[in-house]
Amino acid sequence: MQSITSQELLKMSQIFKILSNENRLKTLHFLFEKERSVGELTELTQMTQSAVSHQLKLLKDHQIVSSSKQGQQVIYSLKDHHIFELLSQAREHVAEDI
């Protein structure tokens, strides 16, 4: 296996820090299913719009989610297949213990 750089370790630890928050994981769970608007995520997560927007900003700043404008709405989705795979693997791991 190839050695890992300090920069890679730092970026990896930042991803895991961002993913370690229950509210962000809840938000990502619903984005895992399909693209959604802030309004949809607010309803599904039962968090305030402000809280959902804050979580989405953090996720977007760390390139975990992306957004696109559809008319008046901003639609959020998982950034790429790597995030999808990380969440899938974590969920499978947790399911083994249940």
UniProtKB/TrEMBL annotation:
Concerning CDD domains, the annotation shows: HTH_ARSR
Q: At the top level of its lineage, which domain of life is listed?
A: Bacteria
Record InterPro entries: ArsR-like_HTH, HTH_ArsR_DNA-bd_dom, Metal_resp_trans_reg, WH-like_DNA-bd_sf, WH_DNA-bd_sf
Domain HTH arsR-type, chain residue ranges per copy: 4-98
Q: Which SUPFAM superfamilies match?
A: Winged helix' DNA-binding domain
Keywords from UniProt, A to Z, are: DNA-binding, Transcription, Transcription regulation
Entry protein name: Metalloregulator ArsR/SmtB family transcription factor
Organism, per UniProt? Granulicatella seriolae
